[in-house]
Amino acid sequence: MYNQISAVKSEIRSARLVHVFTGSDAINVLSSGACSRLLRAAMTVTYTGDVANANIKAFLKTIFRWKGSVWKAVYMELLIWSVCYAILSVIYRNALSETQRDLFEKVALFCYKYGDFIPLTFMLGFYVNLVVQRWMKMFHNLGWIDDVSLLTASYIQGADEKARMIRRCIVRYVCLVQVMVFRAISIGIRKRFPTFDTLVASGYMTPAERASLGESQFYLPARWAMALVRSARAEGRIHSDQAVQDLFREITDFRTRVVALWLYDWVPVPLVYTQVVFLTVRMYFILAIMGRQYIDVDKHPIRGPVDAYVPFFTVLQFTFYVGWMKVAEALLNPFGDDDDDFECNWVIDRNLQAGLAIVDGDGFQPDPCVDKFWDDQHGVFHMYTAETVNVPQNPIRGSAVDA
Question: Which residues pair with 20 in a beta bridge?
């Protein structure tokens, strides 16, 4: 992975600049291929193909990943915890008098006995469930331009330059709504487009449009798009009022979805809940530094018959519980720069590219034709490769059929 990122960075350094801005807002806009490959190398961890089959190979391929893994999430805190544990253990074994050892053992037993009073599983379970549900709703509201573009291409007729301009402007305005919202909530997008001038230079808006827009006026580009729909209807480029309503609905639905992300960003999970959970987990393991010390087993048999130098089961517990907490930390705001945060740059790039491609089209429309199964009197003959033809299938069959 490191070599992949380094290679892409080298390509970026040598890439031909598309635009260069000067002054206080100086940025370089690089070749889209190099940038998109860097984003793929640096963010969302996709491992779905590794778990296509439920077997030990899939388990091993998943468990030994590093990027986005539990090991990467907890290793630094586990290292700090282990060092603190080792220091106390060395002090107890080598530096204390008998009286001091007795006091140390009493404190260790006290922490051991009452440490489990902290409701760790209960609090973490509810909190992580809340954060995951919130994260899923955010993902479903990212916004995809396809429906708007398909309806625009289908309903707004005409091959002349004016018709093409209307279709492309509608898509661009809808994409602009998304970019404006993402600039407000995503660190990566804000760095990419620090000012509206960079949006002008990137083609998302014109200088005249920029003069009319404010930072939080997410409704304005949507209104411009709807005005173009009305204009197209008045000019006869749209042939029915129902088509106008369909376009209005898709534009407003898209805006509603992406603005919902802005609202999620504005009102997060209550801070007190987040503080309580994060403090609970860390305080539990701070107490465990003392409470899980292996003290004199002859005097305190409750602590177990073996004097182990490494608290193996506590390390496992630390990995699982802190890793569980890290899930919530990573998903709490998926618009940052963590391994599993949303690919916001890719989303806006893909939407603009796909949207314009859909409304422009390539001019080709296949004619209706006779399909391969036209004269098949015995139903459709399904084709399989030699490798898949003998794979058993379980078709739908009522459970009472063979009763």
Answer: 28
Residue 84 near residue 289, CB atoms below 8 Å: yes
Answer yes or no: are the C-beta atoms of 178 and 258 closer than 8 Å.
Answer: yes
Q: Residue 163 in contact with residue 361, Cβ under 8 Å?
A: no
DSSP classification of residue 186: -
Instruction: State residue 249's pLDDT score.
Output: 96
Enter the pTM of the model: 0.79
Q: What is the domain partition of the chain in residue ranges? A: 77-139+269-344, 144-263+346-359
Query: Contact, 51 vs 58, CB < 8 A?
Result: yes
Count of alpha carbons within 13 angstroms of residue 105, beta-carbon side: 18
Among 9-13, 137-141, 240-244, 314-318, the least confident range = 9-13
CA atoms within 13 A on the CB side of 84: 15
> Is 267 strand, coil or helix?
coil
Nearest Cα residue to 14 out of 39, 41, 33, 42: 33
The tokens describing 187, both together, are 């660190």
C-alpha–C-alpha distance, residues 294 and 107, integer Å: 12
Other C-beta atoms closer than 10 Å to the C-beta of 328 total 21
C-alpha triplet 67, 70, 75: angle, nearest 5° = 95
Q: What pLDDT is recorded for position 347?
A: 94
Tell me if 356 sits within 8 A of 168, measured CB to CB.
Answer: yes
What the block records as the tokens of 324 is: 């569980």
| Sequence-separated contacts (24+) of 236-244 with Cβ below 8 Å | 237/156, 237/157, 237/158, 237/163, 237/166, 238/155, 238/156, 238/157, 239/155, 239/157, 243/151, 243/155, 244/155
Average pLDDT over residues 225-236: 94
> 49: Cβ–Cβ under 8 A, 6 or more apart, which residues?
none
Listed residue (352, 336, 360, 19) closest to 176, CA to CA: 352
